[in-house]
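Example pasted here:
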Amino acid sequence: MVAGLATNVAFGLLRMAVLTAAVGQTPIAGYDVAATTTYVWLAQGLITVVVLWGDRQLADRVRSGDVVVDLYRPWHLQSALLAEDVGRAGYAVLVRLAPPVAFGAVLFPFRWPSPAAWPAFAVSVALAVAVSFGMRFLLNATTFWLLDNRGVQALYTAATWVLCGLAVPLSFFPDWAVPIVWSTPFAAMLQAPVDVFLERGSPWPLLAGQASWAAAVLLAGHLVLRRAERKVVVQGG
């Protein structure tokens, strides 16, 4: 935890140096220096809360065959993993989100939201966790058919880095590309909570979009799990 936190802060300093240099003379898409530093430290903290990549727990259990034990248990596997992920995210809020935000707020220009925006931000982060879990569950479920999904994982990591708003805010993209990147579930995992925090417009369209994506990916995961259970039976599991 401590090593990961130090890494987040180090990369946050590097990203802040680059982005604040870009907006130092002229704000870009409404991002001035204060908004940019807030975006950087909030995004660095949310990386671990949301978990944008690196989750291979289910994939590894499928490869080893241990997932058969999970499927025998009297629970719904997707719901059980979601409950575990929510607990992990709650812990990460305390140890991986709050410290980088406090570090950035003390040492650099920072833009805090109004008190009315805090409940919307909390809901947005919860929905971001749900969307991220749904996407990671679908990604890991491909192992039921591929047996080794490391190639798919690598593609997913590259896409997430750009499309979720971690590399740069999505509003930095060309005008023609902004609607395209916002039409994917990746934006709901990071850029949406950041925009709610920065109060970039009404939060309700962002929350509605996140809720829609959360419902869609979780339902898709349920259907894929049903097919995967049949696949395990066919293979003799």
Observations:
- The first helix runs from residue 2 to 23.
- The chain has a mean pLDDT of 92.
- The radius of gyration is 19 Å.
- Residues 2-234 form one domain.
